Amino acid sequence: MKLLKAFIFFTIILSACTPSGKNKLPILGQVADAQFEFLSQDSAVVTPQTFENKIYVTDFFFTTCPTICPTMKAQMLRVYEKFENNDNVILLSHTIDPQHDTVGLLRDYAGRLGINSDHWLMVTGDKKEIFDVAKKYMVSAMEDKDQPGGFVHSGAFVLIDKKKQIRGYYDGTKELETNELMDDIEVLLNEG
Amino acid sequence: MKDKKLIYFAPFVVMVVVALVLIFSTKSKNQGEAIYEARCANCHMENGKGLQSLIPPLANADYLNKYRGKLACIVKKGMEEKVIVNGVEYQQQMPANEEFTDTDIANVLNYVLTNWGNEEKPLSLQEVQEQLESCP
After folding, report:
1. Does residue B23 lie within any of the structural domains?
2. Does residue B22 sit within a domain?
3. Which residue has the higher pLDDT, B33 or A65?
4. B103 to each of A51, B76, B113, B123, how far by Cα in Å?
5. Which residue of A has its CA nearest to B89?
6. How far A64 CA lies from chain B's nearest CA (Å)?
7. Calpha distance A95→A143 (Å, rounded)
C-alpha cells in the first residue's frame, strides 16, 4: 500500500515537472491560398511572398479606434521588442479603415510607436481585399456603424508558421495570452 | 445583569460598524478607479504610462499641473489637437465622454491626480463644474 502511494506520488510530481504539451502546437487552419497586395507604412508592396519562410503574427486595427486597439498595440509592442532582432519573425497589422488610414497616416502611427518596418508591417489597401484576407485568418473584421469608431473587430492575434498554417489565436488585449503567444513563437522557431 | 448582556452585544456592534466603514470607504475610494479602468485604461494604460508617442502619459505628466483648469473639459469633450506632454508632442484623437456626470468627472480626475506618483491637489466638484461651464 505504501509503495503504491509512493508510486502515485512520484508520477504526479514527474508529470507536473515535465513541460506540459507546449512543445507541439496544433494546426488550426491554413492561409497558403490567400492572395493579397497591400502597401506598408513605407509604401513597400506587401504580398504573400513577403512572408515566404517566415513566422508571422497578424492582427486588424485602425488608427482612430477608441476601444481595444491601443491595448492591442501595447501588447504587440511587447512581441515586437522580444523578436526585434530575429529575421524569422514578422508582425503584420492591417488597418480595417483604409479610406482613413492612408500610407502617410500609417507611417506617422508607426513612427509614433517607434517601430521599424523590417519587423512590423502596418498595411493598407483595398477594403474588400483586407476583409477577405481577414476571413482567411478567421478573425472577424466587419463594418458596424453602431460600434464606437464604426468597426467591430476581434482583437485577436493570429500566429502563422513558415508553411502558412495557422498555429494559434490569442486575445491581443490580454497580457497573459500575449505571453503565451511569445512562448509559442519560440516553439515554432524550434520546429525550424 | 444588564451590563453583562451589553458585553455580549459589543463584538457585534463593533463588527457592524467596521463593516459599514469598510463598505463606504472602499466604495467612494474606488469609483474613480472603476471609471478609469473602464473608460481610460485601454488608451492611457493601467498604470497611466500612455503608449510611446501615440498616447500621452497621465502618470507624472506635467500637463496635469500646467493645464489643471482644462482637465474637466478634456474628459467631457475629448481632445484632438497637438499637445506637448513632458516634452513629447502628441496628436491623436481622444474621444468625448458626454454622458459622464460632473461627479464622474471629478472622481476619475481625482484618481488620476493622486495616483502613480502624481501628487496634485484633488479637484472639488465645484471646480469641475466651473470648468465645465466654460468648455470651448
Report:
1. no
2. no
3. B33
4. 52, 12, 15, 11
5. A112
6. 7
7. 12
Question: What are the distances in angstroms from CA B105 to CA B27, B59, B78?
Answer: 16, 18, 12
Cβ atoms of residues A48 and A36 within 8 Å: yes
In a domain, B103, yes or no: yes
Q: Is A77 on the interface with B (CB under 8 A)?
A: yes
Contact A77, A113 (CB under 8 A): yes
The answer to whether residue A68 neighbours chain B at the CB level (below 8 Å) is yes
CA distances from A39 to A32, A46, A130 (A): 20, 6, 11
Domains in chain A and their CATH numbers? 24-191 (3.40.30.10)
In whole angstroms, give the CA distance from residue A121 to residue A39.
Answer: 9
Does residue B18 lie in a domain region?
no
ipTM associated with this complex: 0.75
Q: In terms of residue numbers, what domain contains B66?
A: 29-133
Q: Measuring CA to CA, which residue among B109, B53, B46 is closest to residue B76? A: B109
* Integer Cα distance of B130 and A191 in angstroms: 63
CB contact under 8 A, B54 and A73: yes
pTM of the model: 0.81
Q: Which of B53, B55, B90 sits opposite A70 (nearest CB)?
A: B55
Q: Rounded distance, CA B32 to CA A26, Å?
A: 43
B20-63 tens-digit pLDDT: 665 555 544 589 999 999 999 999 999 999 999 999 999 999 99
What gap in Å lies between CA B52 and CA A31, rounded to an integer? Answer: 32
To the nearest 10°, report the CA torsion of B18, B22, B25, B30: 180
CATH of the domain at B91: 1.10.760.10
